[in-house]
Amino acid sequence: MFTYVKKExxxxxxxxxxxxxxxxxxxxxxxxxxxxxxxxxxxxxxxxALFGSICGFSIARKWGGFKSLMGKSIIMFSMGLLAQEFxxxxxxxxxFFLQIVVPYPSLGDIGYFGSIPLYIxxxxxxxxxxxxxxxxxxxxxxxLVLIVPLLLLTISYFLFLQGYELEETPIITIFLxxxxxxxxxxxxxxxxxxxxxxxxxxxxxxxxxxxxILFALLVQYFSDFSFLYISxxxxxxxxxIVDYMYLVSYFLMSLGxxxxxxxxxxxxxx
Length: 270
Hints:
By secondary structure, this protein is an all-alpha fold. It is built from 11 helices and no strands.
């Protein structure tokens, strides 16, 4: 991890952005920051997702782009980061210009929720590289495919969906409240399968890199869950802990994609 950060310029830039935004967030909470200052943080920290997606598209080309499974996987994850940034911009605009504290649901969820099928596809192509088609025939893999999403959905149910009032809730809100945890449970479980099989890829050199992406997806899951929970049961505002959780998830996914460049360089003898 630290080796490729030292060697790779884009990794250094990503780390620098994360440190700067982290200090900004800490400053907001150590001082009597105004609402506008918090809104500014909420509007700009998504730049790390934008930067990560641009790096991802460039790295995907080194893997052959849409001509290879790995290239497709990186492109889907990069598009997922781009979708997250779209949601971030729309949410910040609604919050700043219309003074809507929690604009949920809104047009921003086209980006946020849209990242879910993109991440599912990214995990799927990653699993295909790992040989998931063969593994699914084994009993162990079938159990994992069931247990992992069920565990995440159980957590979501008892902490968020239990006692959910369907009759008084708009249909789009119901769809998103149930769709977010369900869709994210799918991409986490697929990524877990890819990790378990990653020792078969290139002599196992991809194992830690897939584990890193899996961890990034888990942080994304808990970030979205925290947002849904606080927006429904607590007091949500810009620049709070949920925003920092999203910052961490964007940082991890960006690094997860950038580290795949080092594998491509090693294979090509660079």
